[in-house]
Amino acid sequence: MSRIVPIALLLLLPVVAGCRVGSSPVIAEVGDHAIAWDDYRDAYIDYLVTTGLPDEPSRRTGFLERLISMQLIRLDAADNGLVDGDAWSDAEERARRRLLVDAWIAEAAWDTLVVDDAELEELFSRVNTQVTARHLYAPTRQEAERLAGRIAAGERFEDLAREVFSDPVLAENGGSLGTFGFDEMDPAFEEAAFALPPGQVSGPVRTSQGWSIIRVDDRFTRPLVTMTEFATRRPLLTAFVLDRERKLARRRLVDGMLVETAPRIDPVEADRLLSLLGPGVTRDEDAGVDADAVLIRYTDESGEGTWTVGEFLSAARYTDPDQRRSVRDRPTLEAFATGLLVRDLMTERSRRAGLDRSDRFAQALDAAMDEWLYEKGYERIAESEPIPEDSLRAWFARNAGDFKIPERVVVREIVTVSRETADSIRTALGTRSFDELARRHSVRAASAGSGGALGPLSRADLGPLADRVFSAPEGAVLGPIPVPGFHLLLEVGRREASRPATFDEARDDVVALFRLEHRDRLVTERAARLRERYAVRYADVDLSSFPLREEPVVSS
User: Fold this and answer.
1) What is the Cα 389 distance to its own chain's centre?
2) I need a surface site. Which of 43, 127, 429, 537 has the fewest CB within 10 A?
3) Confidence class for position 22, pLDDT limits 50, 70, 90
4) Count of domains in the chain?
5) Maximum Cα interatomic distance, the chain, rounded to a whole number of Å
6) What is the residue range of 139's domain?
7) DSSP label of 12
8) What is the pLDDT of residues 449-507, one digit of tens each?
């Protein structure tokens, strides 16, 4: 029986831009946009790899209908003004920067990649293997090497996990990731984990999130896999290997450029930036920031180079919000900023080489903006239907057990740069209030403005400090507590026990989850109505007669 995959899954896949027609046969047209077989085939293979579904004639037809719906929604979004304004301009610049880096890496590595039979056979074995593993996370290589040294010296994985993870689940389960298989982890993480025998611990492994130390606890490979199965899956395996090799090549080039440029961050400017903008560098960038101050010095092709705070903030503007939120302290800021510097240098090299003036680049940028238009149109449709209050309350009543307010404690903070300042403030607390001293001395703008008040915080909010704070009596002052670049004083207030959330407390989550359940229906209905506005034409072809890519890929 065929599984029904919601249209939301297509957000994970590239949008067919209809720009690579050439000698490729056109299989459908939506308005004035053509869907060519080559574009359809690449997107369809990605879809099969993502879902694990087999290729079938009915699935090919259904996938074409989904792509037509996506084009209809994209056209509707364009006609409704989404191609105007700052949001479009910002998205276009973000895509341009990403594609400039991709173009430079393609020139340096991607265009010489070869997928051979040995890689396909190794991957096929991996598809049929499950690994059980755990890991320790570190934001920098130096911290990862220290963790590896402590493991080698005999410290337990479980003890170190409590120290490094703010996620309470990972902290308590010893960094266990459970059992995973093919394409469920970061490519570099997967490479390392599948290469380790059970019981062995890896050295530092660079991933897209930072660094990991990995220990494999168990491994199981399904027996009796056949060559017939291998032949059936070969086109999908070929596409996956090429994509994985591209990701690994990108990481190797980025790491090589980090070695080449040897960036050195100014610790004073880094601490000042954190104190002004806070974790996640999300506050107003004009709040006392010296844009001309040098944040990083590095070695360029032409000698010594500098990167200013202003240049860093300009580059950070075009990053993913989750990347910015990962910045918590000086080590994470250093990893984030030096990674941005490398991408900025790659972008400049790509521009100097004229890689953004090719037809290939223009087509890729058009495809990226088509994808952005579809996503925004999808979001607009998903949020267009008003939700009656009684429907929300009825949904909450059915699912109330899923919404809880965790145990929390009220906390105030004073953040200082030096231990001496923190000690002197601690002494002054004998005669002056925490509120007054926080307003006068805390270098973090948010806590200075609120008298140090952070509000009720959960264990997840407090991370490694959770046990210390939750075990302290009400009214206690903890610290000075050293954290990278700073020293903290924390005042522990009243505790709030875990309890069920009220509807009003859970309302935002309830609305989001309710919409999630209903958005696929809304999008499908909207796409059906849009067929009355935009012409849809099908070519007289049999989709099942076109072969998927069957030979090893050699990019030229």
Assistant:
1) 33
2) 537
3) low
4) 2
5) 87
6) 129-221
7) G
8) 899 999 899 987 887 788 889 989 999 999 898 876 678 999 999 999 999 999 999 99
Q: What is the DSSP string of 318-336?
A: TS-HHHHHT--SHHHHHHH
For 170, residues 6+ apart whose C-beta sits below 8 A from its C-beta are 161, 176
* Amino acid letter, residue 283: R
What's the pLDDT at 14? 46
Question: Using H for helix, E for strand and C for coil, what is the string for 385-447?
Answer: CCCCHHHHHHHHHHHHHHCEECCEEEEEEEEECCHHHHHHHHHHCCCCCHHHHHHHHCCCHHH
Confidence of residue 443 (pLDDT cuts 50, 70, 90): confident
- Main-chain dihedrals φ then ψ at residue 130, nearest 5 degrees: -120, 135
Give, in degrees to the nearest 5, the angle at Cα 352 between 347 and 358.
85
CA-CA distances (angstroms) from residue 378 to 74, 95, 388?
8, 19, 21
Tell me which of 332 and 34 has the higher pLDDT. 34
Out of 455, 483, 500, pick the residue that ends a domain: 500
- Beta-strand ranges (E) seen in 116-234 are 129-138, 176-180, 205-207, 210-221
Closest residue by Cα to residue 187 from 173, 208, 172, 167: 208
Structural domain includes residue 136: yes
Cα 131 from Cα 388, distance rounded (Å): 46
Task: Say if 439 falls within a structural domain.
Answer: yes
Query: Is 554 a member of any domain?
Result: no
Confirm whether 422 is domain-assigned: yes
pLDDT for the residue numbered 10: 40
Confidence of residue 13 (pLDDT cuts 50, 70, 90): very low
- CB proximity list for 433: less than 8 A, separation 6 or greater: none
Of 455, 484, 500, the last residue of a domain is 500
Give the tokens for residue 418.
């030096």
d(CA 186, CA 165): 18
* Amino acid identity at 35: I
pLDDT score for 213? 93
Q: What is the CATH number of the domain that holds 161?
A: 3.10.50.40
